[in-house]
Amino acid sequence: MGASGAGKTTLLDVLALRKDEGVVEGEIKVDGRPLGKSFKRTTGYVSQVDLHEPHQTVREALIFSALLRQPAEVPEEEKIAYVDTVIELLELTDIQNALIGENNVGLGVEQRKRVTIAVELVAKPVLLFLDEPTSGLDGQSSFNILRFLRKLADNGQSMLVTIHQPSALLFDQFDRLLLLAKGGHTVCVSSGRPPSL
After folding, report:
1. What is the crossing angle of helices 109-121 and 139-154, to 10°?
2. What tens digit of pLDDT does each residue of 39-93 get?
3. Mean pLDDT, rounded, for 152-157
4. What's the pLDDT band for 192 if we cut at 50, 70, 90?
5. How many angstroms from the chain centroid is the CA of residue 43?
6. How big is the chain by its Cα radius of gyration, in Å?
7. Do 166 and 133 form a contact (C-beta atoms < 8 A)?
8. Distances, alpha carbon 192 to alpha carbons 169, 174, 176, 178, in Å
């Protein structure tokens, strides 16, 4: 968490091995071990921008992602069954057959963000990176997105999330906190669930 210019997205990109410019120094380890060659394949990345094929339905987009990104040895029925699980978990059942659309036609902003998260989830990532998933959302929509992320975390999904200025209600949804100041300077690290404000 931190102000604009604090380096939240840059840090997330470095940790997700998506940074291909500038100088990156140091080591990235998971559980004290260097990252394996399959690290990028076992992670998902939800960017701030929601990019979708507008002529697909929500369900078609999720099935396409699951079939394409889960390992080839996983049976197709199992992949589609997992799509159904994600649809239920992110409460997309009512809109699963709706066209995603574009330019203010089709899904609303919050619904589109849930689809963006679901497209990454159906790939069954071990770790999910989310870059400001509440960006551009109103207070209620932001709360809903964080509620879904909390539900995912409670179901065992590991994730790293950047966020700009969460309200006290949103702040309470996170387990650990790294607070950055401008220029990427660490202000505070919380090793446990932050106290309620």
Report:
1. 20
2. 888 899 998 888 899 999 999 999 999 999 999 999 999 999 999 999 998 899 9
3. 88
4. low
5. 10
6. 17
7. no
8. 17, 9, 5, 11
Alpha-carbon distances of 20 from 8, 10, 13, 48, 57, rounded to whole Å: 16, 11, 9, 18, 33
Question: Buried b / exposed e across 132-169, counting CB within 10 Å, b at 16+?
Answer: bbbeebeeebbbbbbebbeebbeeebebbbbbeebeee
Distance separating alpha carbons of residues 108 and 190, to the nearest angstrom: 34
pLDDT at 197: 44
Quote the pTM value: 0.86
How buried is residue 90: exposed, middle or buried, by Cβ count under 10 Å (0-12/13-18/19+)? buried
Measured distance CA(11)–CA(16) in Å, rounded: 9
Which tokens is 41 given? Answer: 């394949």
Rama region for 156: left / alpha / beta (φ>0; ψ in -120 to 50; rest): left
Strands 29-30, 33-34: pairing kind? antiparallel
Q: Show the tokens assigned to 131.
A: 């870059």
**Residues 129/15, Cβ–Cβ less than 8 Å:** yes
- Among 180, 164, 179, 181, smallest CA distance to 190 is for 179
Beta strands in 88-152 (DSSP E): 101-102, 105-106, 127-131
Per residue in 8-20, pLDDT (tens digit) is 888 899 999 888 7
**Can you state the percent helix, strand and coil of the chain, rounding each to 5?**
40, 20, 45
